[in-house]
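Q: Given only this backbone (215 positions), what sequence would you predict?
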C-alpha cells in the first residue's frame, strides 16, 4: 500500500467481527513497530498480546466489571478533558458534535461499543517502565502508531483505547506483566464488522490552525 493510503486508511474501528489473527502476522506487526525511534534507542516498550483463551478470559472479566459499574483505575491516571488545555478541549468538543451528527444524536450504539471492543482478534498491551520519564511516553506513542500503521498495511483494523487498560490488575494477572512495568495503552486489532458505526471518520483541524512555518 502507498504510505499516504496507509495513513488515511488507519482509523479507529469500534466493532470487530471476532475473527482471530494469525500469530505470525502479529509478530510481523510488532517487529515492524520496533523500528520506531526512541530516546538513545532506549526502546522502553514491551508488548503483551492476548489472543484465543486469554483474550476470552479478559473479555468476560472486563464485561463483568463494567456491568457491575466498576470505575477504571488505569496506570496512567485518568485525566479530565479540561486538563488537556483549552485548544485540545475545543477539538474534543468538535469531535462530540461531529460524531453526534453522524449518529443522528443517538450515542447509545457508540457507548455500547466500548463494552464490545474485546471482539477484536487480538488485544495488544504496550507497557513502559514504571516511573519512566515523559520522553518514554513519547517513544511509546511513536511505537503505538507504527504498530497500527503496520496493521493497516496488512489489512488489519485497529483502535487504541483507554478501555483496554482501565483495569490493569486483571491484564497484569492474565498476561504476567511485572509490577515494575506500567500499562500505557491497549490496541485492539482485528477485522471490522459491518456495523454502520464503523463508517465513521473523524476530522482534523485545518492545517493553518495548527501549523506555523517561519522563514
Ligand atoms: C490514548 C488513546 C486512548 C483512546 N481511548 C479510546 C477509548 O477508550 N474508546 C474509544 O472508543 N476510542 C478511544 N480512542 C480513539 C480516539 O477516540 C480516536 O483516535 C480519535 O477520535 C481520532 O479518530 P481516529 O482514530 O479514527 O482517527 C483513543 C485514542 C487514543 C490515542
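A: Predicted residues:
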Amino acid at each position: 500500500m502507498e504510505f499516504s493510503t496507509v495513513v488515511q486508511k488507519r482509523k479507529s474501528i469500534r466493532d470487530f467481527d471476532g475473527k482471530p489473527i494469525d500469530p505470525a502476522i502479529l509478530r510481523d506487526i510488532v517487529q515492524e513497530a520496533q523500528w520506531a525511534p526512541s530516546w538513545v534507542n532506549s526502546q522502553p516498550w514491551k508488548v503483551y498480546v492476548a489472543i484465543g483463551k486469554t483474550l476470552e478470559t479478559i473479555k468476560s472479566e472486563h464485561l463483568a466489571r463494567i456491568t457491575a459499574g466498576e470505575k477504571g483505575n488505569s496506570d496512567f491516571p485518568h485525566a479530565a478533558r479540561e486538563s488537556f488545555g483549552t485548544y485540545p478541549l475545543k477539538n474534543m468538543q468538535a469531535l462530540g458534535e461531529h460524531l453526534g451528527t453522524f449518529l443522528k444524536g443517538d450515542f447509545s450504539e457508540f457507548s455500547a461499543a466500548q463494552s464490545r471492543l474485546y471482539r477484536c482478534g487480538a488485544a495488544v498491551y504496550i507497557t513502559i517502565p514504571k516511573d519512566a520519564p515523559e520522553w518514554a511516553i513519547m517513544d511509546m506513542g511513536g511505537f503505538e502508531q507504527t504498530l497500527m500503521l503496520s496493521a493497516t498495511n496488512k489489512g488489519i483494523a485497529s483502535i487504541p483505547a483507554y478501555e483496554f487498560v482501565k483495569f490493569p490488575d486483571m491484564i497484569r494477572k492474565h498476561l504476567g506483566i511485572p509490577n515494575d512495568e506500567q500499562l500505557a495503552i491497549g490496541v485492539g486489532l482485528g477485522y471490522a464488522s459491518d456495523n454502520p458505526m464503523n463508517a465513521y471518520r473523524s476530522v482534523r483541524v485545518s492545517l493553518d490552525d495548527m501549523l506555523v512555518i517561519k522563514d
